[in-house]
Amino acid sequence: MRLDRFLSVCAVATRSESKRAVRGGEVFVNGSAAKNADMQISPETDEVFFKGKRVEYRKYTYILLNKPEGYVSATDDPKEKTVLDLLPEEFRKKGLFPCGRLDKNTLGLMLLTDNGELSHRLLAPKSHVRKKYRFRSKFPVSREDAERFERGVTLEDGYVTKPAEIELLGDGDEGIITLYEGKYHQIKRMLDALGNKITYLERISFAGLELDENTLPRGEWRYLSESEQEELEKIAGISEIPNANI
User: Fold this and answer.
1) How far, in Å, CA of 15 to CA of 37, rounded?
2) What pLDDT, in 10s, does the model give residues 11-68?
3) Do 141 and 166 form a contact (C-beta atoms < 8 A)?
4) Active-site positions?
5) Which of 45, 53, 70, 194 has a CA between 20 and 30 Å from the CA of residue 164?
6) How many angstroms separate the first and last alpha carbons of the chain?
7) What is the pTM assigned to this prediction?
8) CA 116/CA 112 separation, integer angstroms
9) What pLDDT is attached to residue 240?
């Protein structure tokens, strides 16, 4: 792999930035200053330092994002801001995409990756991946409606949802909802079917990943840890997921 492509794939620098860094003597390969940005390297065996920091190559990228309001879950949109706009520019060329979707005004945890197989497995209907949401509703949810929710709700199109979990808090107009499927606007449609309305929705957990707003403020992102990647591997049923952190 070319050195400048390697640095681009690792989201360290663009091709042009890599060339400038090489000319400035800021890129080292196996202890020696790189002479050309197009030199061939082995990502798995060669040791590369960029501006004093070692660059670790991994095949895939996994990013946890705390999505704010007003961003759409897409890779590109001619009119709206997308979740990729919250990442540094160099990630644009990595082919990242959201693993699952949140509505424009739904907040919280999103997984961004370039691993299509893992995403497909996590989102497959038969996977029943657990997703947890913090919600507020226009009216208190009665115990009777909560029991209907937990048995499965018939939506306006006749679809009967799988049983879900709902934990009511406060006066019953807020709480935690846990789903094991992911139909379009599912929680909003379930509450609509009960004669209620969602006024606030935030995803706080997905496929074993947990959102901690104390360490990841709204609009910020981070790489997954090794243990988080291992958990995704188990849930997706993939034997090995190469890391993608820098």
Assistant:
1) 8
2) 788 889 999 999 999 999 999 999 999 999 998 899 999 999 999 887 788 999 999 9
3) yes
4) 103
5) 70
6) 17
7) 0.80
8) 11
9) 52
